[in-house]
Amino acid sequence: MASTNSANSSQTTAADNKKASAAKPQEQEEEIDIDLEAPETEKAALAIQNQFRRFQKKKK
């Protein structure tokens, strides 16, 4: 009977862990403060956009 109880408790623990891990991202919302007017931000955005466009062309 002890093995049955331990099997049930491990199943419950696994289910609880899944629920807890799913809830964590919703609870922790980190606010990121980025200056959208900064020249470095504009350069980075343009670089990301160019790489994405190249990726899309290569994909076709």
From TrEMBL:
<protein>
    <submittedName>
        <fullName>Si:dkey-46i9.1</fullName>
    </submittedName>
</protein>
<feature type="region of interest" description="Disordered">
    <location>
        <begin position="1"/>
        <end position="38"/>
    </location>
</feature>
<feature type="compositionally biased region" description="Acidic residues">
    <location>
        <begin position="28"/>
        <end position="38"/>
    </location>
</feature>
<feature type="compositionally biased region" description="Low complexity">
    <location>
        <begin position="1"/>
        <end position="15"/>
    </location>
</feature>
<comment type="similarity">
    <text>Belongs to the PCP4 family.</text>
</comment>
<dbReference type="InterPro" id="IPR052142">
    <property type="entry name" value="Calmodulin_Regulator_PCP4-like"/>
</dbReference>
